[in-house]
């Protein structure tokens, strides 16, 4: 393990995690909203926001799937040291990190009829996030919202699975946005 | 600060609760199981709400707790002090100043904003529990969207009483999918469940967390010929004169004297400070209280 892995975590874990979670919760509750998160600096190629989402939500109880572009020794060591989360294939993942091209279509669990919560949350690393592009409707949105999504068809298909389906957290730099399974994309 | 971790719970517990909250927001009305912890208060005193509050609070928050609308009951005061001590958050009794509001059995009268969070204490999260005691069965009923039994219960109300007699914990359907127990709020509050704020529900003993995102569709179950009605005592508040607020009825003497007053104490006192006086009220400052 390189010593780089030991740095870049939350300086004050309870406080930093509380602030980060609050932002993540707000974007999940209001699809289309973009927030910035601070407090952690993961090794490249993991984005700052992607790393902070992992620090906030992952621990030894949540298997993480790393897509090839994020599956480097530095990233693995950093996640292991700071969260203790085990690594796994897509079929067992609680969280998955990667670009949309890598994650789309992989066999992630979408939950079961009796436990729709047993599904993967995808942390989709993007180049940029902005409030333009696809139109969003659904819970958390007053009328409509817009968000720069990597595509539309896959998210439309995902919403049709409701109450099953995947939830998405988009990350770019220090920004986060989210798209839960309930959002209708057009 | 105290010698407790921020907001009392350890970090791994908070992460587990936070993951459940995100799933709850992603599947509105679905009860997410979580590993509820023992809290330094008995079950029934809001252990679920306290755990949810502990997971969402940040040091910048201003926290308000109400019990049946009142800020000054034992339960509300002890929970408010608990987070004052363990999280170092500012506390308030004013609805407009609070960023996180924990509530037992009421929704504040004042309309909540998008930057506020309402945390409910829930005793029995399963709306079908009194109709079907088996968790295996109720889980199957939710998965199959089999809610006929609930309509039978409401129908039996009508056949026995001539109207839907359920007056609190009135079942709602969220986003056209899950039937949800809004916790034992009076049905007067049901229309307010469609709001701009994030609503989180925590049931400690029953180990369930669920949520309603802002502006989500929340429909109270009813029949075409017996539509849902948000009812309240047909009276105005005797202290502040409000005609639009939910009222508590108090017996005030041995001769059967009665008084109706707002259950939301902040709403009532704000109105009285603004100069509103009800039928039995005196202008604020002149009474003994």
From TrEMBL, chain A:
Keywords for the protein's UniProt record, in alphabetical order: Lyase
GO molecular function: lyase activity
InterPro entries, per database record: PhnH-like_sp, Phosphonate_metab_PhnH
Keyword Lyase attached: yes
Domain of life: Bacteria
Gene3D superfamilies noted in UniProt: Bacterial phosphonate metabolism protein PhnH
Pfam families, per database record: PhnH
Keyword GTP-binding among record annotations: no
Full protein name: Phosphonate C-P lyase system protein PhnH
Species this protein is from: Pseudosulfitobacter koreensis
TrEMBL record, chain B:
Name of the protein in question: Alpha-D-ribose 1-methylphosphonate 5-phosphate C-P lyase
Entries under InterPro entries matching the protein: PhnJ (IPR010306)
Organism whose genome encodes this protein: Pseudosulfitobacter koreensis
Lineage: Bacteria, Pseudomonadati, Pseudomonadota, Alphaproteobacteria, Rhodobacterales
EC number: 4.7.1.1
Pfam families hit by this protein: PhnJ
Presence of the UniProt keyword Zinc in the record: no
Signal peptide (residue range): none
Keyword Metal-binding among record annotations: yes
Top EC class of this enzyme: lyase
Family, as annotated: Belongs to the PhnJ family.
Function (record text): Catalyzes the breakage of the C-P bond in alpha-D-ribose 1-methylphosphonate 5-phosphate (PRPn) forming alpha-D-ribose.
Catalysed conversion reaction: alpha-D-ribose 1-methylphosphonate 5-phosphate + AH2 + S-adenosyl-L-methionine = alpha-D-ribose 1,2-cyclic phosphate 5-phosphate + methane + 5'-deoxyadenosine + L-methionine + A + H(+)
Keywords, in A-Z order: 4Fe-4S, Iron, Iron-sulfur, Lyase, Metal-binding, S-adenosyl-L-methionine
